[in-house]
Amino acid sequence: MENKKNFYIDGKWVTAISKEEIKVINPATEEECAVISLGNKEDVDLAVNAAKKAYSSWAFSPKEERILLLEKLYENYKKRWADIANAITVEMGAPKDFATKLQAGTGAAHLKSFIRYLKNFEFEKPLGEHAPNQRLIYV
Question: CB under 8 Å to 58, separation ≥6 — which residues?
Answer without folding.
Answer: 66
